[in-house]
Write a structure and sequence with these properties.
Number of strands: 0
Radius of gyration: 53 Å
Structural class: mainly alpha
Order of helices and strands: HHHHH
Number of helices: 5
Shape: elongated
Largest sheet: none
Strand content: under 5%
Distance between the termini: 137 Å
Helix content: over 70%
């Protein structure tokens, strides 16, 4: 009631005028205005950064020479040479083995015979041990 009376008696009071102006501007509008200013400033900064040429960050590097592409398939002539070289090496090894056997025929034959005899004896012994373990009658 006092405000109404004050308004009637003093319609153009400076204090009333300031209160009216303060009430006409809402707080959410002020917040939105501030956010809009911030957003516009950020956009301006981004546009300046994109449009401004950056000489310092662009450096010219040494040109890199590309490697030559190696063929994945081997031509027949090269493959043939490789196979022939491998065959020559194998033939030489076989020839050396034959010459060693021809130089010492007694040692080669007796070594092979001893190995066969020892192998047969060890097999017989292992069979006998297995029969004993299973409890089977042994043959002499």
């Amino acid at each position: 009631m006092l405000k109404w009376l004050h308004h009637i008696l003093e319609p153009h009071c400076s204090q009333c005028r300031e209160e009216k102006q303060d009430n006409s501007v809402c707080a959410s509008c002020e917040t939105l205005k501030m956010q809009l200013e911030i957003s516009n400033y950020e956009k301006k900064q981004l546009m300046d950064a994109l449009l401004r040429p950056q000489v310092a960050s662009v450096t010219i590097k040494d040109p890199i020479l590309p490697e030559q592409i190696k063929p994945r398939t081997i031509p027949w002539a090269v493959r043939k040479q490789m196979l022939e070289a491998e065959d020559r090496v194998q033939a030489r090894l076989i020839q050396e083995a034959k010459s060693n056997v021809a130089a010492n025929p007694v040692r080669a034959a007796s070594g092979g015979l001893k190995a066969n005899i020892m192998n047969e004896e060890s097999i017989d012994e292992s069979i006998n041990e297995l029969e004993k373990a299973l409890g089977l009658p042994q043959e002499n």
